[in-house]
Design a protein that fits this description.
The complex is a heterodimer of chains A (216) and B (746).
Chain A (H helix, E strand, L loop, with lengths): L3 H10 L2 E7 L4 E5 L7 E2 L13 E7 L2 E6 L4 E6 L7 E2 L4 E8 L2 H12 L1 E4 L4 E5 L1 H10 L5 E2 L4 E7 L2 E6 L5 E6 L6 E2 L4 E6 L4 H14 L5
Antiparallel strand pairs in A: 1-8, 2-4, 2-7, 3-6, 4-5, 6-8, 9-16, 10-12, 10-15, 11-14, 12-13, 14-16
Helix pairs in contact in A: 1-2, 2-4
Chain B lengths: L1 H20 L5 H16 L5 H25 L2 H9 L6 H8 L2 E5 L11 E12 L2 E12 L15 H17 L3 E7 L11 H12 L6 E9 H5 L6 E11 L3 H8 L10 H10 L4 H7 L4 E3 L11 H22 L4 H9 L13 H16 L6 E3 L3 H61 L5 H10 L26 E2 L4 H4 L4 E2 H7 L15 H8 L6 E3 L3 E3 L8 H12 L5 E8 L2 E8 L10 H17 L3 E5 L11 H4 L1 H14 L4 E5 L2 E2 L1 H4 L8 E5 L3 E2 L4 H8 L10 H6 L5 E3 L4 H11 L9
Parallel strand pairs in B: 3-4, 4-5, 5-6, 6-7, 14-15, 15-16, 16-18, 17-19, 18-20
Antiparallel strand pairs in B: 1-2, 2-3, 8-12, 9-10, 11-13, 13-14
Classes of the chains: A alpha+beta (216), B alpha/beta (746).
């Protein structure tokens, strides 16, 4: 059983993710953003088509390759390199500190505290009618699951197959799929938590929702 | 009450004048404003008689100054007039010009596209005691006095498809079509049927519609206007505009603005002026046949005299078109020529022969346009000898392919039939005797031969594989540097060394197949048989017909850099021994934009291909659209070239289009998009408007791969995607398997 409170405490102590930017290949390096503490942004746009902040230019064989910030955050540290210095592939160039958002914190907690039931095959998934009605009327947390329970219908190329739940007993805490979309193999379908942990998880999630301070 | 009404009317008139003259300071407008405000302030203290007297004076002043302001109207003011919510719209015209009408194809916002309005209308004409109801199909954009759902007359692709559908209905019913153009431009989305492709379809079909078409232009914005504007008679309202692009769009291009930046007003006004978009300009250039005078400061719904004038104009135009192609016409034609709108009766249905004549007259009308918008410096002697050569070539084609060819075809068809008949009789006995003979002479049984063919390896023939040995190597291959594929982030492509990438690999990423752009020379040398390319019409030169500021220098620079006189190179070449006519649009020359010179070359090449029964290939190395600096001289190439394509295709040719790099706007929406065989080189982008324009005009964000060739293929806009290294092979295949009956090698 995961101790969610300890997990939250750990996240509070280090409320960010360190992203290490490494040289994708050998070449001479030129820092564009070179001051620690500088704010950077990640890719943006509806399709993430606009690249993030330009951090570094890495040149090899007269080919300057831009390296952009993969996430929003601030520059934490730079490698001790002179402009134009040669670096090897994989060498650490920069570290970015990305402050976790509420959704990311909740995601991390749930990932570690829930059991994820993965899609065994690619296709469209539906809950069996009884479960579906229960979820629609009373919410997903009203459904208790146990090993061997017939829970899903997998629809692929107009053929329907019943899928049984395998995993620890508990209740459905989160649903990760939409009935209209095709789900890839091994994508999570539901997150199950033991019944006795439900209250604790809910409390931590609501505390994160209300107390977690997001940094710009 | 009457005084209040009259005062309100003056307020409305002042508001209208202020809207038309925009933010510019104008003393006359200021005077009207001051006088009206003064009257409104003083009115409560005046007696009724004094109020009426002052009101009359004020109305007189408004009339006088409106007349004065009318003379001061700039092109940009006219643009504001046609965009004003008080401007007459198609419904006003239907109410006031026609005697009765029924709206079809949707009503108000219950329509597949409310910006395109279709109506079956009729005109009642009384001759003596007899009343004639002459039906007509009315098609046009509806702006609807500011009704939001009309989208300002910006028609979506399915709206244009609806228009085309009802044009075909009119053709079936043999009734004339009246189109009314009230559009700032087409709605630039690619969803099926696609903005560009649908306009191209409309143009192609209109080029062959066998009923009279009259177009009336109020706001003629580029491709949107052309979608219903290919007509036998084009009438323009005196305060309208007809242009290749909106002044704001032209200013954004001229000012090199990006990311939704707005051009300043002075630049917009200068562009409006230089684009020569008014009715007078278009009449002078010969792109419209008739200009109808509007009341001062533009026609509004209450101007009933104008509707009467418009009614006369459209009726007279339809009469004229019909008479021009009919047999019995002399006196009525004469009367109409002497006086437009003369009281004559003309039946609007056409006979079969008249329909054929109508199409020919329509073709000639557009063929003769834009003749002064390009330069042909040849000496009269060489022009004469070329004309003579054309005649000889026509005669040769006639004898070779029509006279002798037809006879030969008949003989060969007869021989085929006779052979087939004999085979039926002889087949059974031949098989029997064949078996006997093969047994006697120990020949291999057919089954054994088949088995052997299927179980042994085919000898490898490497003749059609060039193994990376190209005739022409791109100068990019001379750079000693590595290149990163744009898909490296997604597919993990490794960097490639330029000499390999642009040399042996023909600019194709060896990891993901991305095609890097190559020079047009690469295609000339590596697709066609070596030494077979023979350029024609090279003397036709692009000029600056509108004297657009600074464009002469830009043109000179393009000519110097490319060594070509315009952006289209036309040539005859051979592929595996088959001669093809090629029109190549070069991205290096002003972005491959199409102007009068390019259009003329394209049409001449098309005509020659038709005469010589050659297949025709449009290779689009890149085109940014119609050349805006040439104004309507450029946009008129859309119908002109499409008509040439139609004439060629109907004569039994094969018209192939191959897109490379980026192909957008007018050319795709006309003579390129109308081909039934459109292909794209991998990594090409094909579409109507770029992402910036789409965002600005529709507010929609589009995904980065929106115009990608694969998307175009999924939407059904193109028929296939070719690898650059296989173009030659695919062309040979296409020449053999596609196209009409009249190709010289068939």
């Amino acid at each position: 059983m995961v101790d969610v409170k300890t997990l939250l405490q750990e996240l509070r102590e280090e409320p960010y993710e360190k992203i290490v930017i490494r040289a994708p290949h050998a070449g001479t390096v030129e820092f564009v953003s070179s001051t620690p503490g500088t704010r950077v942004v990640g890719p943006s746009g509806t399709w993430k088509e606009k690249p993030g902040t330009l951090l570094i230019r890495l040149e090899r064989e007269k080919n300057k390759k831009p390296i952009y910030a993969p996430q929003k955050g601030e520059i934490m540290a730079l490698a001790d390199l002179k402009p134009g210095e040669f670096v090897q592939a994989g060498q650490e160039l920069m570290t970015i500190r990305h402050y976790l958002t509420r959704e990311e914190v909740i995601g991390r907690i749930l990932r570690q505290s829930l059991f994820l039931f993965l899609a065994p095959e690619k296709g469209r998934y539906y809950f069996i009618p009884d479960v579906d009605i229960k979820i629609k009327t009373k919410g997903s947390q009203s459904v208790a699951v146990e090993e061997g329970l017939e829970l899903f219908i997998l629809s692929r190329m107009k053929r329907e197959t019943a899928i049984r739940y395998t995993g620890p007993s508990g209740i459905i805490y989160a649903i990760y799929f939409d009935t209209n979309d095709s789900v890839e193999r091994e994508s999570p379908l539901i997150g199950v938590c033991p019944e006795d942990q439900l209250g604790q998880i809910q409390e931590v999630v609501s505390r994160v929702q209300s107390d977690w301070e997001e940094q710009d | 009450m009457d005084i209040e009404k009259r005062t309100q009317e003056l307020r409305d008139r002042l508001k209208y004048v202020q809207d038309i003259f925009g933010p510019d300071e104008n003393s006359n407008v200021s005077m009207l404003d001051a006088k009206l405000n003064e009257f409104i302030l003083r009115e409560p203290s005046l007696t009724k008689q004094e109020v009426i007297r002052q009101l009359e004076t004020l109305e007189e002043l408004f009339r006088f100054l409106e007349k004065k302001l009318e003379r001061e109207l700039t092109p940009m003011n006219k643009v504001r007039i046609v965009r004003h919510p008080q401007r007459i719209c198609l419904k006003d015209i239907l109410e006031n010009v026609y005697d009765n009408y029924t709206e079809i194809g949707g009503q108000d916002d219950y329509s597949i596209d409310p910006s395109m309005l279709i109506a079956r209308a009729y005109v009642t004409r009384k001759r003596g005691k007899k009343v004639h109801n002459q039906p007509v199909m009315v098609i046009g954009q509806e702006k609807g006095h500011g009704q939001e759902f009309r989208n300002g007359g910006s028609v979506k692709p399915w709206g244009n498809a609806k228009a085309l559908h009802y044009m075909k209905v009119a053709e079936t019913e043999n009734i004339p079509i009246h189109t009314y153009i009230f559009t700032p431009g087409s709605y630039p989305i690619e969803d099926y049927p696609g903005a560009a492709q649908q306009i191209a379809k409309n143009l192609y079909e209109m080029a062959g519609l066998k009923v009279p078409i009259v177009a009336v232009i109020s706001e003629g914005g580029s491709g949107g206007a052309e979608a219903i504007g290919l007509a036998d008679t084009r009438i323009m309202m005196s305060h309208g505009y007809y242009s290749v692009i909106s002044p704001e769009g032209a200013a954004a291009i001229e000012g090199r603005l990006r990311g939704g930046q707005r051009a300043d007003l002075k630049l917009i006004e200068r562009c409006a002026d230089q684009l020569k978009m008014t009715a007078d300009d278009n009449k002078a250039m010969g792109y419209i046949d008739w200009k109808i005078h509007e009341p001062e400061l533009g026609a509004r719904p209450e101007h009933y005299d104008f509707f009467r004038k418009l009614r006369k104009a459209v009726i007279a135009s339809t009469d004229e078109i019909v008479l021009n192609v009919s047999g019995m016409r002399m006196l009525r034609s004469f009367a109409l020529k002497r006086h437009k709108g003369a009281n004559v009766y003309v039946r609007w249905t056409l006979s079969t022969r008249a329909k054929e004549r109508l199409l020919w007259v329509r073709y000639l009308k557009f063929r003769r346009m834009a003749q002064g918008a390009y330069l042909d410096k040849r000496h009269w002697f060489s022009r004469g000898s070329e004309a003579l050569g054309e005649v000889c070539s026509s005669l040769y084609s006639y004898f070779r392919y029509d006279l002798l060819g037809r006879q030969r075809k008949k003989v060969s068809e007869l021989a085929e039939d006779v052979h087939a008949e004999i085979q039926v009789v002889m087949g059974r006995s031949a098989r029997y005797w064949g078996k006997v003979l093969s047994k006697l002479f120990f020949k291999k049984d057919k089954k054994e031969v088949d088995k052997e063919e299927l179980t042994t390896l085919t000898p490898w023939n490497g003749s059609d594989q060039n193994l990376g040995q190209w005739q022409y190597i791109s100068p990019q291959a001379k750079e000693d540097q590595s290149i990163t594929c744009p898909n490296a982030g997604v597919h993990g492509c490794l960097d490639q060394w330029a000499p390999d990438l642009f040399g042996e690999w023909a600019g194709v990423c060896s990891f993901c197949g991305h095609h890097f752009p190559m020079e047009y020379q690469w295609y000339i040398h590596n697709i066609f048989d070596p030494g077979s390319v023979r350029e024609i019409f090279s003397e036709i030169e692009s000029i600056n017909p509108l004297q657009f500021d600074g464009f002469d220098l830009k043109l000179d620079e393009a000519k110097r850099r490319t060594g070509h006189k315009c952006g289209c190179m036309t040539f005859e070449a051979r592929i595996e021994g088959t001669t093809v006519m090629v029109a190549m649009f070069m991205a290096a020359f002003r972005g491959g934009s199409v102007g009068a010179a390019e259009g003329e070359k394209f049409i001449r090449a098309m005509e020659r291909a038709r005469k010589k029964q050659l297949p025709f290939l449009s290779y689009v190395h890149g085109t940014a659209g119609i050349r805006i600096q040439e104004g309507v001289n450029g946009v008129i190439q859309m119908p002109r070239c499409t008509m040439a394509v139609r004439r060629y295709s109907e004569a039994g040719g094969l018209y192939l289009v191959l897109y490379d790099t980026n192909s957008y706007a007018g050319p795709v929406a006309s003579f390129l998009g109308c081909s039934p065989y459109q292909f794209a080189v991998r990594s090409a982008n094909v579409g109507f408007a770029g992402p910036g324009v789409i965002k600005e005009t529709t507010g929609l964000d589009i995904p980065p791969n929106y115009h990608n060739a694969f998307q175009a293929l999924s939407r059904g806009h193109i028929q296939g995607i070719w690898d650059r290294r296989e173009i030659r092979h695919n062309l040979v295949q296409s020449l053999q398997t596609m196209g009409g009956r009249n190709l010289y090698y068939r």
